[in-house]
Write a structure and sequence with these properties.
mainly beta; four-stranded antiparallel β-sheet
Amino acid sequence: GEYAIIGARQDGDNGAQSGSVYIFFRNGTTWSQQAKLLASDGVTQDLFGNSVSISGDYAIIGANGDDDNGSFSGSAYIFFRSGVSWSQQAKLLPSDGATNDQFGAAAAISGDYAISGAQGDDDNGSSSGSAYIYHRNGTTWTQTAKITASDAIQGDLFGGSVAIDGDRIAIGARGDDNGFAISGSVYVYERVGSAWAGEKKLIASDEAGDDELGWSVSISGDYVVTGAFREDANGNSAGAAYVFRFDSGSWTEQVK
């Protein structure tokens, strides 16, 4: 809408690299800063602002360097806007957070749902990765699901990027090895009741080693766009983006 959110993860207001986030508001053609957000418990190297997302009156901010559950276990914060004021409403921590999970390295919000990736999670091998879903009821945010890929293995970094739009989520796994090492992939899920199901795995039609598809991801309606920042069509690591479309029950690559 008329709001933009920008992270400054190395800002030092609460200690070196504690991080901060800025909110800007548009009036006509002019954008002006409305607020600077800090974590209520920010400390050195929290990296608050490493990931940001905004939806209506709510924002989610990842702090993957937070140490509540061990060094770099990570956290995410929910802020709420009332008028021109933004205030912290919740701090999100995963139910099984652990050292180096990096929960909050990626985060997104849509309506009453938020998602945070933990690319360093080790459930299916070192840095196989996971993502957590939270739901808001009033002012309370509750973890409702933990998602891992059905074919997860060590080094996939599932959850390194996340996106949500309504009843769909997209999760990047840039370290995934399909036909090639670190070619990367994206997983899409749909919410049915309180469950996230129907896993679809998106891979590039011309996937190649080290492309890292899934480095970034966004979803809107029936479309997913994902970055492969080391793709080599225009030179070594020149990069590319792929658009996938959902039609007649399946996701297909539409354009590179």
